[in-house]
Amino acid sequence: MGDKISKEEYNSIIFAAYSALIKNTKNMVFIKDVNHRYVGASDAFVKMMGKEEEAQLLGLTDFEILEDQNLAKRYVNDDKKLMEMGENLEDYVEPITDLDGHARYGSTSKYTLKDDNGNVLGILGITKDVTREYFTRQHYHQELKSLFELPEEAYAVCYIDIEDWRIISQRRKEMFEGTIQSCNIVEELSLAAIDSIIDRESEAYDFYKNFTKEALEELFEGGTTEFSFKYERRLTNGLIRWVHNKAKFITDIDNGHLCLMLIAKDIDEEKKAEYELLMAAKMDKMTMVYNRETTMNRIREILFEQKDATHVLLMLDVDNFKNLNDTYGHQKGDEFLIQLADQLKRHFRDTDVVGRIGGDEFFALMKNVPDLSMVPRKADQILDTIIAICENYEGVNLSGSIGISVYPEHGDTVEKLYAKADEALYQAKRRGKNQFIFATS
Question: Of these four, 76, 279, 365, 371, which has the most CB atoms within 10 Å of its CB?
């Protein structure tokens, strides 16, 4: 067995170890004597205190070092209490000063230093910068609250461990007599989502179609921390509603695994309100058919997208409409136009375009007409409809005149078709009204 080392050698080794620790540790280490004077400090602690070297702290108290005297008083009182009680303080998380003005947090442990007789000599303090861990933990616990307290209007939350590729937890609540299907494994979740998504071209469908561990890890490694998308989804009762999916990547603070929090929020009322606003800008407010601008734009789109098809434009004008206003008043005139617009919508397909272009004039574009012989029948039906509505207004001789132009025979733009249909309409009125006329090439 080796000889015992002397007390001087022991002290020398301890001092060397202390010097190495003070020089190399990234933690903020300090030593105070019983009079609260600093007798040692690591470089990290010196920097935190706003000094350049240890010598600027040695022999001084917090009152002599810190500008904030309230903070100095707090530090000294804490140390006094510690030395009086003779107990250690471990892993106390508290704010620490930062020269850059950013919030930082440290995990502080303080130990009372005693001699062989148990007399207190001072305090050893070690503070580890845990700012990142602190905010990570705060964020983690904040996100986990979603599993126990569903966010407002959210009706499903799912927490997935990406590394283990399993569902850790999920919560659902009934909304509108339906909800999102409960799933036990990740693959079941993605398949259920795919089956319920209405639009197969949507971002949501692409996301769940490629819902794999590798795809999610690649997304996170690319810098994405959270994302969201909106889509229409069929709930368990078959009801279709708009859903807003929020997805957030979270690092589990216990095992370090990358996890994903999926939150499904109902936004059906919000989307309906958006749709109503959009339609209000497109529609004629009185008759609820397209307004002039929307009608022209829709026809332009059709002519551009389906250049090789045959389309027919009907331009309708109500004959003697002024007589109705003069006899029954403008309110009855508006009532007539509303009834006429409603009947026009019934006569045409959803893919056709029906719009009011001004006053008592309407446009109707018959899209993709395979046989032009069907157009006169359609025009006769419209004229008969006007006569039928007029029966409600005795003493007013109302009828309709229709001018018809054909794409591409009479023009390859909406402006040219409009001009040709207008010419034909004028001819119909000149020839006695209550009739339709095709434009000439």
Answer: 365
